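Proteins fold reproducibly. Look at a concrete instance:
___
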Amino acid sequence: MKMTPMIESFVFHFGEMGSRWGFNRTVGQIYALLVMTQDPISANDIADTLAISRGNVSMGLKELNAWQLVGTVHKQGDRKDYYVTKGSIWEMANKVFEERRKREIDPTLSLLRDNLMDTPGNQSEEYAQARIQEIHDLLENITKWTQSLQALSPEQLNGLMKLGSGVSKVLDLKQKLIQKNQ
């Protein structure tokens, strides 16, 4: 399988971005190739197309499978496994967000909660604990907010995003009304 320049550009860029999103460059490239490929593709074809080892492809597909981002299909009369992406782009984004939350946010919140349960030993620790509380509260609010966003349909989320700066204008107006009524 030969990639067009447009697809190749996307695949290699997605690999670089993948390394920033929590999985290695090769896994990102494999996933991007699957996203850009209409028909199911075999591991051998993935390896040939990306010029990577078959073992590297196998490990990458295992990781993508663990993230529930790829599925396996079979072609009648062919013993090879073929791979496809699971779900829509929106569902993929939700799975990536959820995995990142489990791997990054949840352990951090757990550590912060443990630190907040300790009794401060001095003024320095009291200050640190107050800052830890702020960080904890921010992460909790972000987590609740993102879970609310994940519950929205793609259409609802698009509508919310189209509101854009209009939301901040409504919040500013609400704040002014509250201040006026005090």
